[in-house]
Specification:
Elements (H helix, E strand, L loop, with lengths): L1 H19 L4 H11 L2 H28 L21 H26 L2
Helix pairs in contact: 1-3, 3-4
């Protein structure tokens, strides 16, 4: 979650700088050339996948903060078992990863036309 947040923040800052260069036609053209290159498509595809993961994981965490999927509290006896990482929560994490993988596949399909 932190890695995707940091990547999205860096992408946002670069995007704002990219948009600010519209006044200078030469640098705007160079930035568009970088954006439409295969490396630029890969960066955009990864951004789409991380954005989807970040958003869906944030929704999952909001539900978890509300008490959904955590389970009932139990007495902490040795050996300790993590209650917050039960089957429901792990399933939600796997679904989140799957949806972000589908978003990555769709972005790659759009950019590279498989």
């Amino acid at each position: 979650m932190r890695i995707s947040g940091i990547y999205l923040l860096v992408f946002f800052v670069v995007h704002v700088i990219h948009a600010a260069t519209i006044l200078d036609r030469m640098s705007w053209g160079q930035m568009l050339f970088l954006t439409y290159s295969p490396a630029g498509f890969v960066v955009l595809s990864v951004m789409i996948a991380l954005g989807a993961f970040h958003a869906i994981n944030g929704i999952r965490l909001m539900f978890q903060q509300g008490g959904l999927g955590i389970g009932t509290p139990t007495r902490p006896d040795y050996p300790y078992q993590i209650q917050s990482m039960g089957k429901k929560n792990r399933l939600c994490i796997y679904v989140t990863m799957g949806v972000s993988a589908l978003a990555l596949y769709y972005a790659l399909d759009v950019f590279f036309e498989f």
